[in-house]
Amino acid sequence: MSHRSSSVIHVGFTNTGTTSLQLNFFSRRKDIFYVGEPYRDRGGLFSSLRFVEDFRYDETQISLECLELIFGRSEGKTVVVSDETLCDSPQLYFAPNVLPRDVIASRLFRLFQPAQIVFTIRKQEEYVTSMYLNLKRNSGFFDRMPVPPLSRWYRGMLSQVRTYFLQNIDFSEAIALYEQIFGRENILVLPLEQLVVDGPKKYLQTLCDFIGLDLSEEDIHHYADARNVRMSQRRSMACELLPDDRFAALYEGLGQEFGRERLDQFLDTGERAEAALGEEDLSDLTARVGSGNRRLAEEYGLDLERYGYTLAAKPSALAKPVRIAPVRDDASGRTDHLVAVIEAQRKAKGKQIAAMRKSFATERGAFQARIGELQASLDAERDAQARQVAQMRETFAAEREAAAARIGEVEGTLKLERAAFGARIGELEAVLNRDRKAFVTRIDGLEQTLDDQRTGHGKQITEMQEIFALEREAMAARIREVDARLQGEREAFVARIDELHASLDGERVGHAKLIADMQAILAAEREAFVARIHALETSLGRERAATAKHIADMQETSAAEREASLARISELDEKLKVEREAFLARIRELETSPNADRQAQES
């Protein structure tokens, strides 16, 4: 089994500086494998992990995808997953239903163990208002849905046992859940206020020390660029107006008229939006979070009081627990009997739990061993498939080069024929110019003859001049007709050459599309092959045979496509041959036409 990289999971909470960590730190480090958000081809894995219920959740398939798409690509680097929606709900009005936190945490443990967990927190007063403003912005601009005022929204969210938003208002609850699953030693709690009060160097150094990275000056420099800042008052007002269809139409028109970037820049400038809880709501919030904040401060050594968090009062050192003596029945020692029964039940329960833990450890070891076997088989199959794909790519490349060479040959032939056409047109123009000069010379000779005879033949000269004028006009008309015909032929040649260019470009695009389609087919078949890997546990041999048959089918398809390409090239050659013969026939016709006209005029 290949070496499995260690994992760091930043699970939340929202609105606690998570975007800055993702964009300014995790995504810029070269010594970690940041899974990223959006997840791209890993999106289905995390969607299943967060949204798919147990009765539809295929853990074997998800485990194989995790091994292939994450650990198989990490190259031994530390894997980092940072996604606040693993613990909090997406801040959208129309949002998918996120599974309970304990279900997601257990799935993360089975996929990424051993793993270190990072929690970023924030003063609850600001956590609530920031979540509210983000929800207001997203609901307005994405869903065009109004959000009630902050106080009414806060009370409505906390009126139920478990609500969609603000379920993590007491941070210690979710943190305690991850402590039970991953172990206290694998948890880091990082207050956002440490970044504000102590600066980015100390804030990032705490994170780097926990996950075993060296902090650089470049990391600190990148953190000067704050991400996901609070929206402006202008944008807040637009959020309130967007549910109105009339304003929505106006907003779309402004975006089209002035450009979306300029409109967004205008909306994001100016004072920041404000939202604050009333005194009654703050009192309710204090009662809900004080004890949890006190536990986090003491358990993780955090100076939350210096950062402005609400902490419950410490229990008095003078107070001592009061022991209540058991009430005994005078008639019998019934209390002692009950105590003994409870103790026996406790011991039996302890043995049962120990047995369950041992069974779970055994099953986990067997499961990991089985995953190792599947990973080895998968690696072998992947190597074989990679070799097969490489061979097919080499074949495709050779065929592509041959097709490109043939297209280049056809283009060369077309260029030569175009040059020949141009030369022939030049020759015809030269012949026409010679004929025109001969006509002019003949006319000049006739004029000289008429001048010589003008003295004794005035009347005859006049008649001859009239005849000459008529002949000159006829000749000029004929010359214009020949010019027009030559111009038409030239335009026809140019149009035909352009048509041949277009036809050749179309064929080239068709070849490129055909190659792209073949590559898409190969990619689709590869994805289908990967999707079927999870069935290797039951029928690995049958899947291998099916894959081999499928590759043979692809080779037959490739051969058929290659034959079709060759047939198309032959068809193009035949079409060019026919067109060439038509051009030659037309040129011969043009050559005979001026000669016939010239003979008619001379006669």
Proportion of helical residues: 55-70%
Q: Rg to the nearest angstrom?
A: 43 Å
Helix count equals 17
Biggest sheet features: 5 strands, parallel
Provide tags for this entry.
mainly alpha; Rossmann fold
Describe the structure.
There is one protein chain. The chain has helices spanning 18-24, 43-51, 59-71, 101-112, 124-143, 150-157, 171-182, 192-198, 200-211, 217-222, 233-241, 245-258, 260-268, 279-300, 334-453, 458-531, 536-602; strands at 7-12, 32-34, 78-82, 115-121, 187-191. It is mainly α and 603 residues long. It has two domains: 7-230 and 273-300, P-loop containing nucleotide triphosphate hydrolases (Rossmann fold); 392-602. A five-stranded parallel β-sheet has the order 2-3-1-4-5, sandwiched between helices. Helix 12 packs across helix 13, helix 15 packs antiparallel against helix 16 (458-531) and helix 15 runs parallel beside helix 17.
Would you spell out the secondary-structure blueprint of this structure?
Layout (H helix, E strand, L loop, with lengths): L6 E6 L5 H7 L7 E3 L8 H9 L7 H13 L6 E5 L18 H12 L2 E7 L2 H20 L6 H8 L13 H12 L4 E5 H7 L1 H12 L5 H6 L10 H9 L3 H14 L1 H9 L10 H22 L33 H120 L4 H74 L4 H67 L1
Please give a quick description of this structure.
By secondary structure, this protein is mainly α.
